[in-house]
Amino acid sequence: MRVAGCDVGSLTAKAVILEGTTIISQAVMRALTRPAESAEAVLQQALDQAGLTRGHIAYCMGTGYGKDQIAFADGVTSEIACHARGAWWHAPGTRTVIDIGGQDAKAIRLDGDGRVIRYAYNDKCASGTGRFLEIMAEALEVELEAMGNFGAQAQETLSISNQCVIFAETEVVSLVNEGRAVPDIVAALHRAMANRVAALARGIGIADDVTMTGGVAKNSGVFTALADGLGTVLKALDGIDPQVNGALGAALLAAEAVSKGSPGR
Amino acid sequence: MTLTAGCDVGSLTSKVVIMRQRRIVGASVIKSRVKPGESAEQALQQALADAGADRGDIAACVGTGYGRERIPFVDATRSEIACHGRGARWLLPSARTVIDIGGQDCKAMRIDARGKVEKFLTNDKCASGTGRFLEVMARVLDVDMADLGGFSRVSRTPIRLASTCTVWAQADVIKYLNTGTPVEDIGAGVNAAMAHRVAILVNAVKPRREVVMTGGVAKNAGVVATLEKLLNRRIRNVRKADPQLAGAIGAALLAEDERNGGN
Fold first, then answer.
1. For chain B, is the Cβ count within 10 Å smaller at the N or the C terminus?
2. Domain span holding position A48
3. Would you say residue A263 has pLDDT above 80?
4. Do B168 and A177 lie within an 8 Å CB cutoff?
5. Residue B27: burial class (beta carbons within 10 Å; 0-12, 13-18, 19+)
6. Considering the entire predicted model, what is its pTM?
7. Cβ separation of A126 and B168 shorter than 8 Å?
8. Looking at this predicted complex, what is its ipTM?
């Protein structure tokens, strides 16, 4: 039996197709203007990769900010449930999930059975979200994907005192004008980002194991800084793009829905 | 000629006011330079020229603003609260609540009849509700900051910005521009969003009459009008001098006190 999970975020759309308990396809794309179109396109991409058609999918679970506009979804569920489920599937010892996406950051606490106990969420302020890094990469004229490597070359410890993205951007420009090295600035930005998210996570109480998901988990600088900031070992998802964790969780919940007898297609 | 000067070095603009017997004889507002010391120097030169005075005529000078520690020529420095409270009372003696929106912060204070600050709140952590918010939006809309206020008067259907965060609001504004929303409707929405954010801070100091607004944003009629509605109080117009000069005026008055050996 094949099921799909579709996570339509504000910046990207993700889809995962599962066959039994094996991921047979995953896709990530930049979101289009309408969530409905993004969903359609990203699912098609995942289907094409697996050489399947819509008819092969027994059940599709939608999630993410555009979940209610996914025409082909058989069910919808919260992002929190999906991220928790995805991380738990990879690392069943997970008690804390930290997910940093393009426009939000979440910290989720799980019990010993993988159930969500509580969570904290920031989507009100761009600080501590992927957008922070995007804006800083632009200001520094560095590729977003290269930020992690840049930070690794840092030699001097700088600090960014402003939490606000707008004010921190000004601070970064001043540091550049002062002749500070870009790797040093990048490393300081990673620490600032990590501190902000660590504060969010501390609000719900951190318990080991801590698993980091979301697109920002691909930035090794933030990953390391967050582990340092929390004073713990961070687990990464292996084998899949951490950005598709929400879609994976949705697909797993789709499989559960089918096994509970929810009507699929 | 015995004069006193007040120098307010802000993040975006620097201001100098020169007074003789507590009356303004010269003033300047310049865009701040990279180094606060240079901003202060340039603003002083310009204000001296405006007053037709020489540096030697200045008996005492007080510095304030975020760059106050780096002004070479001041005799003393004072906090922005002290200067804005004092300056606001000079601008409007009946003022009991002062709202000052600067380029990088927003202050709300309640003062007593003698100008003593009773309650004071500031936001300098988040760009929203500060001059920077309007600056960012004016740049996106490709309009002059000074023209932003007028949009609220002409717009019939202002947009409603969902996010407080400057970054998210900017993305919303770009979306509205891309979908062809008239610029006056977006501008009016920006002014309203600004006022909503400022009102939260002002309400927290429990404003009392009269309410006066200082700082550059006081010149934005759209923000002022929405703020009046939200506070349910009139915001008094300041005509005695440019409201942006409040901090520098307070500093010059404090310099006069200094010269007289205390209040």
1. C
2. 1-91+240-265
3. no
4. no
5. buried
6. 0.88
7. yes
8. 0.87
